[in-house]
Amino acid sequence: MKQNNYRHDVITLGETMLRLAAPSKQRLEQCSSLDMTVGGSELTVAANLAGIGAKTAWISRLPENPMGRFVANKAREQGVDTSRIVWTNDPDARVGLYFVEMGAKPRPSRVYYDRRNSAASRMTFAETNWSALLPEARIVHMSGITPALSESCAGLTFDLLKAAREEQCLVSFDLNYRSKLWSEGDAGECYRRLLPDIDILITNRYDCERFFSLKGDESEMAVELSDKYSIRIIAFTSGEAPAVWSGRWSASLWYDGEFFAAPEAEEIEVVDRFGAGDAFAAGLLKGVLEDDPETALQLGNAMAAISQTTFGDIAWIREHDLTDYFENKNFNIRR
Amino acid sequence: MKQNNYRHDVITLGETMLRLAAPSKQRLEQCSSLDMTVGGSELTVAANLAGIGAKTAWISRLPENPMGRFVANKAREQGVDTSRIVWTNDPDARVGLYFVEMGAKPRPSRVYYDRRNSAASRMTFAETNWSALLPEARIVHMSGITPALSESCAGLTFDLLKAAREEQCLVSFDLNYRSKLWSEGDAGECYRRLLPDIDILITNRYDCERFFSLKGDESEMAVELSDKYSIRIIAFTSGEAPAVWSGRWSASLWYDGEFFAAPEAEEIEVVDRFGAGDAFAAGLLKGVLEDDPETALQLGNAMAAISQTTFGDIAWIREHDLTDYFENKNFNIRR
Amino acid sequence: MKQNNYRHDVITLGETMLRLAAPSKQRLEQCSSLDMTVGGSELTVAANLAGIGAKTAWISRLPENPMGRFVANKAREQGVDTSRIVWTNDPDARVGLYFVEMGAKPRPSRVYYDRRNSAASRMTFAETNWSALLPEARIVHMSGITPALSESCAGLTFDLLKAAREEQCLVSFDLNYRSKLWSEGDAGECYRRLLPDIDILITNRYDCERFFSLKGDESEMAVELSDKYSIRIIAFTSGEAPAVWSGRWSASLWYDGEFFAAPEAEEIEVVDRFGAGDAFAAGLLKGVLEDDPETALQLGNAMAAISQTTFGDIAWIREHDLTDYFENKNFNIRR
Amino acid sequence: MKQNNYRHDVITLGETMLRLAAPSKQRLEQCSSLDMTVGGSELTVAANLAGIGAKTAWISRLPENPMGRFVANKAREQGVDTSRIVWTNDPDARVGLYFVEMGAKPRPSRVYYDRRNSAASRMTFAETNWSALLPEARIVHMSGITPALSESCAGLTFDLLKAAREEQCLVSFDLNYRSKLWSEGDAGECYRRLLPDIDILITNRYDCERFFSLKGDESEMAVELSDKYSIRIIAFTSGEAPAVWSGRWSASLWYDGEFFAAPEAEEIEVVDRFGAGDAFAAGLLKGVLEDDPETALQLGNAMAAISQTTFGDIAWIREHDLTDYFENKNFNIRR
Amino acid sequence: MKQNNYRHDVITLGETMLRLAAPSKQRLEQCSSLDMTVGGSELTVAANLAGIGAKTAWISRLPENPMGRFVANKAREQGVDTSRIVWTNDPDARVGLYFVEMGAKPRPSRVYYDRRNSAASRMTFAETNWSALLPEARIVHMSGITPALSESCAGLTFDLLKAAREEQCLVSFDLNYRSKLWSEGDAGECYRRLLPDIDILITNRYDCERFFSLKGDESEMAVELSDKYSIRIIAFTSGEAPAVWSGRWSASLWYDGEFFAAPEAEEIEVVDRFGAGDAFAAGLLKGVLEDDPETALQLGNAMAAISQTTFGDIAWIREHDLTDYFENKNFNIRR
Amino acid sequence: MKQNNYRHDVITLGETMLRLAAPSKQRLEQCSSLDMTVGGSELTVAANLAGIGAKTAWISRLPENPMGRFVANKAREQGVDTSRIVWTNDPDARVGLYFVEMGAKPRPSRVYYDRRNSAASRMTFAETNWSALLPEARIVHMSGITPALSESCAGLTFDLLKAAREEQCLVSFDLNYRSKLWSEGDAGECYRRLLPDIDILITNRYDCERFFSLKGDESEMAVELSDKYSIRIIAFTSGEAPAVWSGRWSASLWYDGEFFAAPEAEEIEVVDRFGAGDAFAAGLLKGVLEDDPETALQLGNAMAAISQTTFGDIAWIREHDLTDYFENKNFNIRR
């Protein structure tokens, strides 16, 4: 991997939407205001990485209007480089949205997407000057949401993964299957075409079964994926939801031929489950940047857990939170 | 029972009050604003039924002022027919109120009523044109709160139950004993006079003991009530409160001579325990409208559980919530 | 005109959107929550009419999801009959949106629409059973927004105006030109084709100049329009905005051959300028229902003024507000 | 007048209610929360006096429940002595309420009272140990609201005014006619019986005409009242409301035989017009305590003006506000 | 101990700060508003005692500005006598602050202090007229925070404890070690100098080990402390935090030679853990005022538990809450 | 001036504080939450410049804690380069604060500072690598607040102005006298020492009189200042406050020997007067970057006016706002 003195530790690309959530545990039909933040898997990864000290950029396509600027502002607020966002003046360009309704057992939390025809869904490979960007980046991270957005986004995904490889970037990919966007069949076909260009794969046992027809335990799956597609690093995440207000999180890791089993998952008091997987990805990549598999697994799991205790998709985790997490198992007030 | 093509599946009658609740788990003495919704057992039943597809009307008496209109607006918002509300221009007419303070173990939630002399407490049988309404209704539902409000309300209760019977409506009654309104002695006497006119009774084991001197388990109580008063359908509810933020709910059902034991109660993450019994009643009556005892019991229990996860007395449950409830026992985000 | 005993005094048809407004005079980029209400010219007319005692229905097309139900709930809350809404289960169906930013002089208030591809933009004439509805309605009201939404909506507009005429409904039409939706050329051509089917036209001097090439003062314009297209009733509105927090409103009226000049406009303290024109239309139509031109003009102007003092597009005006308005010109607290 | 070393400068007695106001300029029908403060003319006078350095007590009757304690807490927060409040454990005892809806021109602000049968309306003279209190008080202040509440409150008013006189307290009375509580005839009769026991009268020109059949300008009215009833100090207030968000206030004063004309009224930016008269009374009485008519008039007018710039009935005015008011006529930010 | 007819049951002295808390479980970096209450160990004790019927005063030093008055207002609101507060007009005088961020397992709640150079940190013994106050007080309560604030505060602590002893007040002291303010070494030295002047000590097992080198169980520690320093009453508190939203609390008590073991701790649903120790102290001192060790221990534990269910440092506990607590172990709604 | 291809158009340096404002026009003593934003003259200039397209950096000193990060986040959100902020881990380091209370005529808005001993007040020249920064900057902007903060800040001000000059940066300085921080005598002495190093001076007529003993009109003052100190560009601002909710703003400009008189000031509806001068400075400097005096004056005045219509010190102005401002004088809703 490229060393520490490059301009960007991690570049991510993808769509970010306005997240409009019913406040105070109300239902959407019931409320008279909505809490507005932003959400999008790849920006969340970049923001979480920036929060713990990595240099990150996020690339997307946004309309030149208050909603588009809102998204970019929130990325900048986190310390993410937004200078490569593609801005459009098309009066019909829109930011995608999703509505969120927080649940309580036995009523699950729910998301309602309104993201069709967003400006981001019209991203193309050609509109960004990759040859200036990629040589200065150590890792390029994408997710399986992008190829599902549109044909141009699928093309962009293939082209960017290849281009990143050629520029000696590590290529990271989080499968992140979204059934609202495409069928399992289409998704699997796409994923299988992408795998040969991926260095770091974030997936889970169930997706490995349905998309790659893998069997056995996670270490066996890792061996097979690694053999077949030359993937160096594979994380298998597992987030349990015994209830809405409590959860558990753990992941195992295959790293350059070695398998690290998932540590025991501790109970989490869940404020906002959204973005847990992206927080994991951020912690994982921080460890990869340090080329330390144990750090990668520990940080990934820590960030996924803490992320669920904070409101919004972005986790707002700082280094002192990780220190606290690893040093303390007492939950009195820290003064 | 009358079939499906009548104007109203269920007509309910009773008082609805403004519910003024301290927000954000504050105490009443501590807060500078109050969350305003509406609450009243019989409107809540009608609203919850409308939410899952039944045609309902609610009848009451309200002052022609913003607070009175607020109550009617909220009923209309739920799809309840409010065209038979009796409006008064008496400048002293008022909407009853109750103040709510949410608790946390070991401090229980508390209600403080301020409902004396409300417009609804002066309802009379004569001011509504029942002979036009009842022939078009399949079920008439009332509760044991109404006869406790005033003498005129007690008279209205007796007269309406009898009139409904005569028009071949099924008569449903939820005991709902309120110790602030009358003594156990007065209540018991009233209830025992009403029972012969009731087809569907919602009660619980403890009330059967103290008001009807019944003994034994719920199935034995059901047999005795059914024998003595010719009640076709009897539900015995049981809501446990091991803590304030968690609960359990279950009910058993006697239906045309058959006893259906209560299913095991699952844990509920409680947002707002208010209205659980009314949500049960709505689910039960939906099943009765379909003349299906298993549906009645399952829907009643499901709605009582989900109702506790939503803010306010009214449950805001829609058909997809029930589908979710019966199909899933995983509490991850539904996307 | 049909007399008072029909089912609906006024039926309106059109799109209603979620209105997402930055709270507390914040800018959109700055806020962390949005106030959610609903807005759409034709529903606002129906709601405002219902608020002052008319029987109204609103027809539109909505997705079967929380956002669609939110819109219908808010219509019901106002007492508008929503039973003829067309519901779609298409998972891609969406409710249109608009974002609102309140201004202060010298910064005007702004609207940002995100309404393309809404469920309502796919309304068709065929999906509603007009032959059951129109005979029971006295007035049918539409606006010039609907034909601009899509081809199917334009077709629906033409067909409905004709069908309403045939059923002896009075046809009311508010030009309501929206430059974001179509060009002046396209709009003018459409309007000119619609005029022969219109009984009641709401317009203004500037639109009469640019779309109908009229000249002279409003009374001269009225004569010409009336002569050419047989329009019985024409209102010319005039809303001034000398600042953002203060305004003036007045309108003149041509009614069955007689011209009523605009009364002097008084100063308005503006809370929310949105929906003033729709409030005028409601007041006007109330007067038309009573076939009283002076009432029509006075109520229209009163409602347009009061409407600007209340938050949201819908005016929440009740009969006592009108009494107050006409009786009092003192602004002390009414106790 | 008694000198400065008494326990209480001013004792006031009267009802205080919960004030439930629609927030953010919403209408009552429209809002989902209400801002809760307290309001009652006599407590407001005592609180405003305490805020500018006088020692005051307020006497009333309250239920021993959170709403009753809320009222007493808010009085204590202002530094008012609440130790003589009469507390009742009657489970039916209630705190009176009023609902507030803020207006905007041409829609006036509105109050809706719900105060019948309040605990305060059952106050009696006998339940307070006046012989211990009155010798230690310099001024006793009441208003014309109290005798209108109930027969027992009317009796209390008569008895207390007489008892205060006997103990050499100055007796202050603000007419404060409330048409919702009694007729002009009943009020006038009562006022005329009370006048002989009053040293300080707060009234206005219109009330002097309708209740005391006075004519002429304010100085002539003062001479006549003073001659007939031996009233030492008479204030004639005049609050204008050219709009809802702007106002003017002025008052003239008769003080021991001398007439002080009203200074010119300056424009006020009105946040909350409620309590302006009570703020005037507080300023006036502060001047009376210093036996300085010019101070009395200036402080009264200043406090009435500033009071309208603060949210709630109580004015939250501190001594530095008065310094600012008298020294500055520039409205830049004070840093 | 002095009997019941003294002016003050308990006088406390110490700093109170503004408490600025991120709302709705947000992180501090994330929020756009802060909830403002007040917090300070000794005022909290006085307020909690006043809430359950004791006569208390609180003494401190505050700037004459809105923030200083805010603190005093909130003390008065609770019924605490604030007449002995020392007010300063120094323009640089400030109220100390602390920022609060509520956590969720595995992220603990956090406090960030900004209290240096507060007006309270400059309190001196000389500026209060103790010889007028102490003879009228039964108990004087302080905490180990005060001597850590500054040299003058340390001097004040020593002098006041001695002066209180001389006036036959019972001297109560809560160790309350704050590591941000001083080292363990400095604190221990100070505490050991103070112990001989203390009658009532609130501490815990861990502090007894580190500051007083005690060993063994709590009863053995009590014997040793009591023997060595003649301390009559010693409470050992134990608050567990297995998670952030749930907790347990218990304490044991040494009282005039008798040891009362800690009762079993029940689970608490934690709204706000802040102030639990101060609520314990208040309950304990209430029992001491009645000279009843069992009441002292029960009330202390009850108040510490209930305190954690209410927002803010002050517990807002009233006598009916204690009745509920001791009579009920069911958590249904109390109507 | 350096041309357009430098890294930073404008670098500013100064303190930024947390701004804690009472919400909804409440008084500080009255509110239970505070709105938190950030405020500091020099960051506001940088942010406003970034908002209209300039490349800016802001330099300051902040503690490594949530409050320090909050300030930096908000700067980043605006697109300001924060990479040169000096971070301190001193546990006693604090962010300065100010409390804001919004007024209404006749009560002015008020600020209460709590900024002593802030981390920023300990800035030094030495801790920043100026030799790397200044060559890449076109303008360096400071204000007269910084030298008033502390001796080290005064030294930093002198040293930085000189160093910026040496590196051919244009030096901009806004006098911004703060009477709470130092005397007129000390300020004047400092200002007079700084003037020779300044290229762009923002001041007003009154300050020129009291600090530089200038007489005559603004053009005469400009000539004298320019002659004596070789200042190229001098702006004389004039913000009027006839009331709290309305204002006027204008400024005149001396630019390279030519005087541009102030255009007539139009009425502003004032949401938040804070930061108007900083918005002017940003507009002025934008014009200076384009070396266009007319643009400088127009943009300055436009931004100062619009800035008062937005909440917070930072103006959130975007290029479309300026287009609107210059093209339109009608205040209807822009759709």
Task: Describe how the helices and strands are arranged.
The structure is a homohexamer of 335-residue chains.
Chain A: E1 8-13, E2 17-21, E3 33-39, H1 41-51, E4 56-59, E5 61-63, H2 66-77, E6 86-88, E7 97-101, E8 110-114, H3 130-133, E9 137-143, H4 146-149, H5 151-166, E10 170-174, H6 184-194, E11 200-203, H7 205-212, H8 218-229, E12 233-240, E13 246-255, E14 258-260, E15 268-269, H9 276-289, H10 293-307, H11 319-327
Parallel strand pairs in A: 1-4, 1-9, 2-7, 5-6, 9-10, 10-11, 11-12
Antiparallel strand pairs in A: 2-3, 7-8, 12-13, 13-14, 13-15
What does this molecule look like?
The structure is a homohexamer of 335-residue chains. By secondary structure, chain A is an alpha/beta fold. Helices cover 35% and strands 23% of the residues of chain A. Chain A contains 11 helices and 15 strands. In chain A, strands 1, 4, 9, 10, 11, 12, 13, 14 and 15 form a 9-stranded mixed beta sheet that branches. A 4-stranded mixed beta sheet of chain A has the order 3-2-7-8. A two-stranded parallel sheet of chain A has the order 5-6. In chain A, helix 2 links the parallel strand 5 and strand 6. In chain A, helix 1 packs across helix 9 and helix 9 packs antiparallel against helix 10. The longest helix of chain A is centred in the middle third of the chain and has 16 residues. The termini of chain A are far apart. Strand 3 of chain A pairs antiparallel with strand 3 of chain C, so a sheet runs across the interface.
